[in-house]
Design goal:
By secondary structure, this protein is an alpha/beta fold. It has 2 domains: 140 residues, Response regulator (Rossmann fold, 3-Layer(aba) Sandwich); 94 residues, OB fold (Dihydrolipoamide Acetyltransferase, E2P). Helices cover 32% and strands 31% of the residues. It has a 5-stranded parallel β-sheet with strand order 2-1-3-4-5, with helices on both faces. It starts with a strand and ends with a helix.
Length: 254
Protein backbone atom coordinates (compact mmCIF):
# COMPACT_ATOMS: atom_id res chain seq x y z
CA UNK A 1 0.00 0.00 0.00
CA UNK A 2 1.03 3.61 -0.53
CA UNK A 3 0.59 5.92 2.44
CA UNK A 4 -0.10 9.58 1.73
CA UNK A 5 1.28 11.65 4.61
CA UNK A 6 0.79 15.24 5.69
CA UNK A 7 3.36 17.05 7.89
CA UNK A 8 1.98 19.81 10.14
CA UNK A 9 4.37 21.90 12.23
CA UNK A 10 4.88 25.64 12.61
CA UNK A 11 8.68 25.15 12.58
CA UNK A 12 10.28 24.75 9.16
CA UNK A 13 13.23 22.73 10.49
CA UNK A 14 10.87 20.27 12.17
CA UNK A 15 8.98 19.72 8.91
CA UNK A 16 12.21 19.30 6.96
CA UNK A 17 13.49 16.69 9.44
CA UNK A 18 10.35 14.56 9.16
CA UNK A 19 10.33 14.87 5.37
CA UNK A 20 13.97 13.71 5.22
CA UNK A 21 13.19 10.69 7.40
CA UNK A 22 10.23 9.78 5.21
CA UNK A 23 12.39 9.97 2.07
CA UNK A 24 13.81 6.55 2.98
CA UNK A 25 10.33 4.98 3.17
CA UNK A 26 9.30 3.71 -0.31
CA UNK A 27 5.67 3.17 0.72
CA UNK A 28 5.17 6.73 2.04
CA UNK A 29 4.50 9.78 -0.11
CA UNK A 30 4.55 13.25 1.43
CA UNK A 31 1.29 14.69 0.12
CA UNK A 32 1.86 18.10 1.66
CA UNK A 33 3.16 20.29 4.46
CA UNK A 34 1.35 22.89 6.57
CA UNK A 35 2.81 25.49 8.91
CA UNK A 36 -0.40 26.25 10.83
CA UNK A 37 -3.64 24.69 11.98
CA UNK A 38 -5.94 26.52 9.56
CA UNK A 39 -4.04 25.26 6.52
CA UNK A 40 -3.96 21.76 7.99
CA UNK A 41 -7.75 21.69 8.40
CA UNK A 42 -8.28 22.81 4.80
CA UNK A 43 -5.74 20.33 3.42
CA UNK A 44 -7.12 17.36 5.35
CA UNK A 45 -10.70 18.06 4.30
CA UNK A 46 -9.76 18.46 0.65
CA UNK A 47 -7.00 15.89 0.10
CA UNK A 48 -7.78 13.27 2.79
CA UNK A 49 -4.24 12.10 3.69
CA UNK A 50 -3.91 8.66 5.28
CA UNK A 51 -1.42 9.74 7.94
CA UNK A 52 -0.79 13.09 9.62
CA UNK A 53 2.31 14.05 11.60
CA UNK A 54 0.70 16.70 13.78
CA UNK A 55 2.45 19.19 16.05
CA UNK A 56 0.42 19.83 19.21
CA UNK A 57 1.68 23.28 20.18
CA UNK A 58 1.07 25.74 17.34
CA UNK A 59 -0.01 29.41 17.46
CA UNK A 60 -3.73 30.24 17.12
CA UNK A 61 -4.94 26.68 16.34
CA UNK A 62 -3.34 23.80 18.23
CA UNK A 63 -2.99 20.27 16.93
CA UNK A 64 -5.87 19.22 19.20
CA UNK A 65 -8.05 22.00 17.77
CA UNK A 66 -7.26 20.84 14.24
CA UNK A 67 -8.86 17.48 15.00
CA UNK A 68 -11.75 19.02 16.95
CA UNK A 69 -12.70 21.17 13.95
CA UNK A 70 -12.72 18.28 11.48
CA UNK A 71 -15.96 16.38 10.88
CA UNK A 72 -15.53 12.83 12.30
CA UNK A 73 -15.83 11.30 8.83
CA UNK A 74 -13.29 13.69 7.30
CA UNK A 75 -10.41 13.15 9.70
CA UNK A 76 -7.26 11.16 8.92
CA UNK A 77 -7.19 7.44 9.65
CA UNK A 78 -3.87 7.73 11.47
CA UNK A 79 -2.30 10.54 13.49
CA UNK A 80 1.20 10.68 14.96
CA UNK A 81 1.53 13.60 17.35
CA UNK A 82 4.84 15.41 17.34
CA UNK A 83 4.87 17.10 20.69
CA UNK A 84 6.73 18.70 23.55
CA UNK A 85 3.56 18.64 25.65
CA UNK A 86 3.24 17.86 29.35
CA UNK A 87 2.87 14.46 30.99
CA UNK A 88 -0.92 14.63 31.26
CA UNK A 89 -1.28 14.82 27.49
CA UNK A 90 1.26 12.06 26.91
CA UNK A 91 -0.71 9.72 29.13
CA UNK A 92 -3.82 10.44 27.08
CA UNK A 93 -1.93 9.75 23.84
CA UNK A 94 -0.79 6.38 25.14
CA UNK A 95 -4.32 5.37 26.04
CA UNK A 96 -6.35 6.83 23.19
CA UNK A 97 -4.22 7.97 20.26
CA UNK A 98 -2.22 6.10 17.68
CA UNK A 99 1.23 7.29 18.73
CA UNK A 100 3.31 10.31 19.60
CA UNK A 101 6.86 11.54 19.17
CA UNK A 102 8.27 13.55 22.05
CA UNK A 103 10.60 16.28 20.82
CA UNK A 104 13.50 15.93 20.38
CA UNK A 105 13.01 12.35 19.14
CA UNK A 106 15.51 9.84 17.78
CA UNK A 107 15.23 8.23 14.35
CA UNK A 108 14.64 4.81 15.90
CA UNK A 109 11.62 6.17 17.76
CA UNK A 110 10.36 7.71 14.53
CA UNK A 111 10.55 4.32 12.77
CA UNK A 112 8.64 2.65 15.61
CA UNK A 113 5.82 5.18 15.34
CA UNK A 114 5.69 4.80 11.57
CA UNK A 115 5.53 1.01 11.87
CA UNK A 116 2.54 1.30 14.20
CA UNK A 117 0.88 3.64 11.71
CA UNK A 118 1.37 1.09 8.91
CA UNK A 119 -0.13 -1.69 11.01
CA UNK A 120 -3.08 0.51 11.94
CA UNK A 121 -3.76 1.51 8.33
CA UNK A 122 -3.65 -2.11 7.15
CA UNK A 123 -6.51 -3.07 9.45
CA UNK A 124 -10.00 -3.12 7.97
CA UNK A 125 -11.40 -0.93 10.75
CA UNK A 126 -8.86 1.85 10.28
CA UNK A 127 -11.23 4.30 8.59
CA UNK A 128 -11.64 7.55 10.50
CA UNK A 129 -10.08 8.80 13.70
CA UNK A 130 -9.92 6.70 16.85
CA UNK A 131 -13.40 7.12 18.47
CA UNK A 132 -11.99 6.87 21.99
CA UNK A 133 -9.54 9.64 21.24
CA UNK A 134 -12.31 11.83 19.82
CA UNK A 135 -14.21 11.31 23.07
CA UNK A 136 -11.13 12.37 25.04
CA UNK A 137 -10.74 15.50 22.90
CA UNK A 138 -14.36 16.44 23.54
CA UNK A 139 -14.01 15.89 27.29
CA UNK A 140 -10.89 18.06 27.40
CA UNK A 141 -12.77 20.86 25.65
CA UNK A 142 -15.51 20.68 28.30
CA UNK A 143 -13.10 20.24 31.22
CA UNK A 144 -9.74 21.65 30.14
CA UNK A 145 -6.60 20.45 31.89
CA UNK A 146 -4.42 23.42 32.71
CA UNK A 147 -0.73 23.24 31.92
CA UNK A 148 1.87 22.47 34.55
CA UNK A 149 4.80 23.12 32.23
CA UNK A 150 5.35 25.25 29.13
CA UNK A 151 7.44 23.92 26.27
CA UNK A 152 9.64 26.64 24.78
CA UNK A 153 11.19 25.81 21.42
CA UNK A 154 14.43 27.29 20.13
CA UNK A 155 15.60 25.65 16.92
CA UNK A 156 15.85 21.93 17.66
CA UNK A 157 16.13 22.58 21.40
CA UNK A 158 13.11 22.49 23.71
CA UNK A 159 13.18 23.87 27.26
CA UNK A 160 10.45 23.06 29.78
CA UNK A 161 9.41 25.87 32.11
CA UNK A 162 7.36 25.11 35.22
CA UNK A 163 4.36 27.45 35.28
CA UNK A 164 4.85 28.01 39.01
CA UNK A 165 8.27 29.52 38.21
CA UNK A 166 6.74 32.19 35.94
CA UNK A 167 6.55 35.69 37.44
CA UNK A 168 4.60 37.27 34.61
CA UNK A 169 4.01 36.95 30.87
CA UNK A 170 3.92 39.82 28.42
CA UNK A 171 2.63 39.96 24.85
CA UNK A 172 4.89 40.63 21.86
CA UNK A 173 2.72 40.57 18.71
CA UNK A 174 1.88 36.86 18.16
CA UNK A 175 4.44 35.75 20.72
CA UNK A 176 4.56 35.69 24.51
CA UNK A 177 7.58 36.41 26.71
CA UNK A 178 7.81 34.36 29.89
CA UNK A 179 9.66 36.08 32.73
CA UNK A 180 11.09 33.70 35.31
CA UNK A 181 13.43 35.44 37.73
CA UNK A 182 16.32 36.87 35.74
CA UNK A 183 15.53 34.68 32.71
CA UNK A 184 13.15 35.31 29.80
CA UNK A 185 11.77 32.81 27.29
CA UNK A 186 9.99 33.51 24.00
CA UNK A 187 6.96 31.32 23.40
CA UNK A 188 5.35 30.97 19.96
CA UNK A 189 1.82 31.59 21.16
CA UNK A 190 -0.52 34.53 21.58
CA UNK A 191 -1.31 35.81 25.04
CA UNK A 192 -5.00 35.03 24.56
CA UNK A 193 -4.35 31.37 23.72
CA UNK A 194 -1.92 31.06 26.60
CA UNK A 195 -4.37 32.60 29.06
CA UNK A 196 -6.88 29.83 28.33
CA UNK A 197 -4.29 27.14 29.16
CA UNK A 198 -3.27 28.55 32.55
CA UNK A 199 -5.21 27.98 35.76
CA UNK A 200 -7.32 31.03 36.63
CA UNK A 201 -6.68 30.25 40.30
CA UNK A 202 -2.99 30.97 39.75
CA UNK A 203 -2.80 33.45 36.86
CA UNK A 204 -4.67 36.65 36.01
CA UNK A 205 -4.56 38.95 33.00
CA UNK A 206 -4.02 42.36 34.59
CA UNK A 207 -4.08 44.33 31.34
CA UNK A 208 -4.22 43.82 27.59
CA UNK A 209 -0.59 42.76 27.32
CA UNK A 210 0.30 41.05 30.61
CA UNK A 211 -0.61 37.96 32.63
CA UNK A 212 0.63 37.77 36.22
CA UNK A 213 1.29 34.91 38.59
CA UNK A 214 -0.93 35.94 41.50
CA UNK A 215 1.56 34.55 43.98
CA UNK A 216 4.12 37.12 42.78
CA UNK A 217 1.99 40.18 43.56
CA UNK A 218 3.27 42.10 46.56
CA UNK A 219 1.13 45.25 46.36
CA UNK A 220 -1.41 47.30 44.43
CA UNK A 221 -0.68 51.00 44.25
CA UNK A 222 -2.16 54.14 42.66
CA UNK A 223 -0.79 55.12 39.27
CA UNK A 224 -1.16 58.13 36.99
CA UNK A 225 -4.56 59.32 35.73
CA UNK A 226 -6.35 57.78 38.68
CA UNK A 227 -5.52 54.24 37.62
CA UNK A 228 -3.70 51.54 39.60
CA UNK A 229 -0.74 49.24 39.10
CA UNK A 230 0.36 45.89 40.53
CA UNK A 231 3.82 45.59 42.04
CA UNK A 232 5.50 42.20 41.87
CA UNK A 233 7.88 40.82 44.47
CA UNK A 234 10.80 41.41 42.08
CA UNK A 235 9.93 45.12 41.88
CA UNK A 236 8.30 44.99 38.43
CA UNK A 237 5.36 47.40 38.08
CA UNK A 238 2.54 46.57 35.66
CA UNK A 239 -0.48 48.69 34.81
CA UNK A 240 -3.83 47.39 36.06
CA UNK A 241 -7.02 47.67 34.04
CA UNK A 242 -9.09 45.40 36.29
CA UNK A 243 -10.78 46.35 39.53
CA UNK A 244 -8.58 46.67 42.60
CA UNK A 245 -11.05 44.71 44.69
CA UNK A 246 -10.90 41.79 42.26
CA UNK A 247 -7.11 41.64 42.58
CA UNK A 248 -7.31 41.76 46.37
CA UNK A 249 -9.89 38.97 46.45
CA UNK A 250 -7.94 36.76 44.04
CA UNK A 251 -4.71 37.12 46.02
CA UNK A 252 -6.47 36.48 49.33
CA UNK A 253 -8.03 33.28 47.91
CA UNK A 254 -4.66 31.71 47.07
Amino acid sequence: MNIRALIVDDELLARVRIRMMLADEPDVTVAGECANGADAIAFIQKDRPDLVFLDVQMPEISGFDVLRRLPPDRGPSAVIFVTAHDRHALEAFEVHALDYLLKPFRETRFREALLRARQHLMREDSQGMNPRFLEWLASQERNPAYLNRLAVKSGEHTAFVEVNDVDYIEAAANYAILHTGATSHILRETLTNLEAKLSPRRFLRVNRSAIVNLDRISAVQPAKSGEHAVVLKNGKVLSLTRGVREIQQRVEDL
